[in-house]
Amino acid sequence: MITLRGLTKRYGDKAAVSDLSLEIAPGKVTGFLGPNGAGKSTTMRMILGLDRPTAGEALIGGRPYAALPRPLTEVGALLDAKAVHPGRSARAHLTAMARSNGIPVRRVDEVLETVGLTAVAGRRAGSFSLGMGQRLGIAGALLGDPRVLMFDEPVNGLDPDGVLWVRRLMRSLAAEGRTVFVSSHLMSEMQLTADQLVVIGKGRLLADAPVTEVIAASSRNAVRIRTPRPGELAARLAAEPMPLQVTRSDAGELAGDGERADERAGELIVTGAPIERIGMICHEIGVPLYELSPQEASLEEAYMELTGTSVEYGAGAPQKAGV
Q1: Where is the signal peptide (predicted)?
Q2: What is the pTM of this model?
Q3: Which residue of 32, 117, 128, 281 lies most exposed, with the fewest beta carbons within 10 A?
Q4: Is residue 203 part of a domain?
Q5: What is the DSSP letter of 318?
Q6: Based on the domain organization, do 209 and 254 belong to the same domain?
């Protein structure tokens, strides 16, 4: 388990991380999200003892990193895949790591096999592609068979097969009861990989919840309705006491005025009302339904909504040609 208590890092009058308190539990993949400059890398570096906190503490299994007698056997990390001597082979790099940390050298071939680098184990790391470098970094994290694992952008440079492999690896490590803490900018991949999400912005905690809860909290969640009497239903929904929004997305018939309904069903998009309540209203007023389906927000939409006021380095709208 990773525990953060009031973790703070200041550079002069700027707070890179501010009073961050949370627990990253074992047995699940915890995604670590936030805009550029939010403090993700600084947080990970403080957990690993690479940066000293201004205040607070970061603990791994109840102890700071510096107090771990054999760190690589307790926590493995991939923060920078380029942090490898380019003249060393993959096997030599991992062997040096193993010997300097009291890890059996037999683990080198085991992790090379795990990450798919056995065939190129004798090649210099400096000749590796970005994706191969990522695999070597992951091998280094796995070398000590630790119970806590941290990965910063682990799918960077990987092809689709490699991305799928990383996803399965993260899930399998968590299933073994390990703590898996992963940062990424790929929302679609986090939605498929993570169980829990920690979201920060401008150094402050914005969310610490299961992926499903983060998405469910988005105002972009809606209900799609297709009915031959959209106008009548829209008027009834507008009378509800709850704050909801009804949007017409078609040009069909508007009201139940006794005339024959248009054969083309009208479509409504409703936000702010539970689908169960909408179904009950349709039953009460006798409006037939061709479709009543939830339109769930994506993690990307929920994330953008959550961090909208925490983007430190935002880009302006693209200019038109010739402007």
Answers
A1: none
A2: 0.81
A3: 281
A4: yes
A5: P
A6: no
